[in-house]
Design a protein that fits this description.
The chain has 61 residues and is α+β, with helices and mostly antiparallel strands. The protein contains two helices and two strands. A hairpin with a 6-residue loop joins strand 1 and strand 2. The protein starts with a helix and ends with a strand.
């Protein structure tokens, strides 16, 4: 498990520690705040072998 975790590149993928507020700021700092436009909101249900979209709403027109 440790080798698998160490090979990932996103700071959010590390479940065995090593992620700090500082490392997250360093990794994401250049991309935040993100500027984007949301076109819809999607309500998701996450479960093992059972992920699905429960509802979805379009925003604005």
């Amino acid at each position: 498990m440790v080798a698998e975790v160490a090979s990932r590149t996103s700071p959010f993928d590390f479940v065995a520690g090593g992620v700090t507020v500082g490392s997250t700021r360093s990794a994401l700092g250049p991309t935040l705040p993100a500027r984007c436009r949301a076109e819809r909101i999607s309500l998701q249900r996450y479960a093992n072998h059972g992920c699905r979209t429960v509802a979805e709403w379009e925003l604005g027109a």
